[in-house]
Each structure stands twice: as structure tokens, then as C-alpha cells.
Amino acid sequence: MRQLKPDHLLLNSAQCHNEQDQDPETTLDFTIQRLKKGNDLSEIAKLVRAFIFDDLKGLEALSALRLEPESFVTDTMSHIDRYLPPDGCLLAANDRSGEHKGCVFLRTLSPDVGEIKRLYVHPDLRGTGAGSKLMHQIADEARQLGLRTLVLDVGKYATAAQALYRKLGYREISVYPGGETDPAITPHLTFMQLDLAP
After folding, report:
1. What is the extent of the structural domain holding 98?
2. How does the average pLDDT of the chain come out, rounded?
3. What are the C-alpha distances in Å from 193 to residues 48, 73, 139, 162, 170?
4. Which pLDDT score is estimated for 54?
5. Could you give the number of structural domains in the chain?
């Protein structure tokens, strides 16, 4: 029988740091919260907006594409149910005051495959290990959903994110089926996969 996890997991940031990233003077405590239907998602919408604006800025720096960020925000938030239980998961990293300062989304593409979307950590929590912890936790959530594989796309310009994913065991693949990437953006993305250990 599966043991259910609490919706809030208190983590001392020192436990979440990579040893090389630790700085006792600047560590913060944060919690990881599993969101569900009925939660106020207005702070998540702000994080999604910040993620998309940053992402499109990187895309526009390397291409002639000019895209409308608000349409991506609206699309994400109008389809938020696909990232909530029972078929998905949305995690938030909260600061000491309880404010959402990071997020990561998971949706089921098939009975075995899940897609990671919208990993974002606000500058206030960067360097605390929150991004890495969100990715570890979302992989655990995927296992609980019975998924065996995680896939994601990341901008070719997002070298720090790519480095994090590789460190976590993701490998580069070709475009995966079921993703919702705009064909105009596809050439500017790297696609990655993680095979989940049982």
C-alpha cells in the first residue's frame, strides 16, 4: 500500500544544497507544496508569467521570432487542470512567509510517460537548491502516478537549466510525441528524457 505524503514538506535549504553551492550566510528555509484543485493559483500565474517572459526573451535573443507572452500565460492557466491530480502534479516552492517562489508542473502524456513543464525559481530562492529539490520531488510524484519516463523541452539558450537536467540524469532525445510545442519554436529547443528507476 502506498504511503501518502503530506501536502507541505518542510526542508532546510542546507539539506537541499549541493555542497559546492552552500553558503551558511545566505541559506533560506523553504517548503515544497503540492497544489490541488481549490488552491489559490494567482501566485502560480505570476510565476508562470515570469517564466514565460524570461524564456521568450532568451528565444528572441537567438532567433527572429517575436511571440506574444500573454497568450502562453493564458493558455497555461486555462489548462491548469491537466497539471493537477489525479493525472498530473503541480509543486510550489514557498519561502518562509509561505509565498510561492518557484514551481514545476507535471502532466501525463501516456500511461508510462509524463511531461515536465514550467520549472521556474524566483531570484529570491535561486542558489538555495529549490530548483533541484522541485525536480527531485516531481520525479517522486511521477513514480507515484506509475510513470516510467519523464520528458521535457528546454530552450537551447537555457544552458543553466540544461546543466541541471543533465546532472539529474536527463539525456538528450529527439522531439517526443504528445508535446504541445509550437512548430516555430521547435528548432530552438532541446528535448530531454529521464528513465525513472522503480
Report:
1. 8-147
2. 83
3. 22, 25, 12, 12, 5
4. 84
5. 1
